[in-house]
Amino acid sequence: MAIGDVVFGRLWALHPAREADWDALYADQLPRVYNYFRYRVGHGAVAEDLTSLTFEKAWTARHRYRRDLAGFSTWVMAIARNVAVDHWRRRRDQVPLEAAEHLSGGEEPHERLERRDAFARLSRLLAELPEPDRELVSLKYGAGLTNRAIAGQMRMSETNVGTRLHRIVQKLRAGWSEGGAA
Amino acid sequence: MMDDRFLGEQREEPSAGFSRSLRERLRGLEDAREARASRLRPVLAGAVAVAAVAVAFTFPAVRVAAQNALDLFRVRSFAGLEIDEARIEQLRKLNDASDRDPAMLVFDEQQVLQEPGKPVDYPSADLAASAAGLPGLRQPATLPSGFRFEKAVVTGEGAARLTVRTAQLRHVLDALAIRDVRVPDELDGRTITVRKPATVQQRFTDGTRSVHVLEAMSPEVELPPGADLRELGEIGLRILGLDAAEARRVAGGIDWRTTLLVPVPTSAGSFRQVDMHGSKGLFIRTVAEPKADGTRKRRGALVLWSEAGRVHAVEGDIGGEDLLEVAQSLR
Q1: Which of B262, B276, B278 is nearest to B326 (CA)?
Q2: Residue B69: beta bridge partners?
Q3: Residue B274 or residue A167, greater confidence
Q4: How far is B22 from chain A (nearest CA, A)?
Q5: Interface test with A, best of B26, B248, B257 (most A CBs within 10 A)
Q6: CB under 8 Å to B29, separation ≥6 — which residues?
Q7: Interface confidence (ipTM) of the complex
């Protein structure tokens, strides 16, 4: 290995997300984090607020981000998960049904309205899941993480993640077919 | 149909308005951080980061290079090293306490062997090159719009001899609470000799902003015979804030006879490796700094690299990509 590679490799490893990278990382990770919260808490302002909070925390702590320990996505998602935990801790006495609250009627194009209806219905089904299951679904389908990445985040085996997700989807399918949470 | 596909398809892009407003808020945090960092930034940090060009080219800065790790050498490559604000502050306080030049924390005395003399202005780069003994001085083929050549400044050769005092080095380590480092006794009283060749600095300006293009033969430092550079480098890295394992690993990966380490405070800027005419260069983007009149100096950038036995640097308060374009255009 070239000397420069060793030196620069180490420096890249320790250097926080540089400004030049930040724009790209931000653009890349924003949809991931935002959708994680959408699936976690439902559509609406809450998901945006929590996304904002996550990126603000990431930005102010960026000097602590170490590339040699985690990919940026993993790091940001770990922050997002902590933000979600704090959120639910504050709202323990409330049922997470923001999705329903944010349903708008009205003048939207039919397709979009249909889509929002579908997500609102899905959110209500998700709200009935145990917390760990909803977290799994949010990481998988909201954040779009692989089973391996989820396993790393949740300290589970990859096999276990796959098995549990399979069961959760079956459960959601059953609820959907029965018209649950409709 | 409730399946993987359906679940994945419920994702949606954040709205453009939300995305934009959050980005702007983050920008605001960035500016606030920069302003805070600028207020805190000590002279040492400024000297190291913003004027990192000087590390290679000016006399005081060559001393900084020597301070880093008693490296020496001829510069063939540059490497940035991120150092923590807290460590900079510690070093600054140490220096304030000793009332010494920051670079002299571990040296006992400095004997000037050759004064570089005052810089001399020349009306053309060719004249300056001739005066400095740098035939074939490179000049930029590309400049940002509105920029024009203003002058070329030559600083003469200089040389100094520094004496290492292990007691001072131990004092610094002790003050930094680094207690697991062995300072070689045999180092005490040994000297290193720093030789700085003549330098040409071409200045270009559009009236408000400026770009400096510097070129020189590599500075040289004569080391004490038999010095274990890796060991000394490791000590230097510990002083700069790396933990024992990291310092050992990095010290083992550096050719201390050819690599000039440029410490960059975390708040002062960011850096990355760039390809410069086939050589590995160090690109540093610097943040805005407060000036004496209360205004803030523009953000800037600089790039350092070594090529064909010469050291090059381009520095300016223009955009980083523009600066790299100027550097790449040197012919």
Answers
A1: B276
A2: none
A3: A167
A4: 6
A5: B26
A6: A56, A59, A60
A7: 0.77
Instruction: Name the helix (H) or strand (E) containing A134.
Output: helix A131-137
Residue written as token pair 């880093």: B68
Q: Which positions ≥6 away from B66 have C-beta within 8 Å?
A: B72, B103, B107, B162, B192, B194, B221
Looking at B113-243, list the stretches that DSSP marks H as alpha helix, in order from N- to C-terminal side: 125-132, 166-175, 229-239
Say which residue the tokens 């960092």 belong to.
B37
Burial (0-12, 13-18, 19+ Cβ within 10 Å), B224: middle
pTM attached to this predicted model: 0.52
Q: Which of residues 15-54 of B touch A (CB under 8 A)?
A: 18-19, 22-23, 25-26, 29-30, 33
For β-strands B259-265 and B77-83, DSSP reports them as parallel
Identify the residue with better confidence: B43 or A32.
Answer: A32
- If one compares A30 and B104, the residue with the highest pLDDT of the two is A30
Residues B120-126 have a mean pLDDT of 94
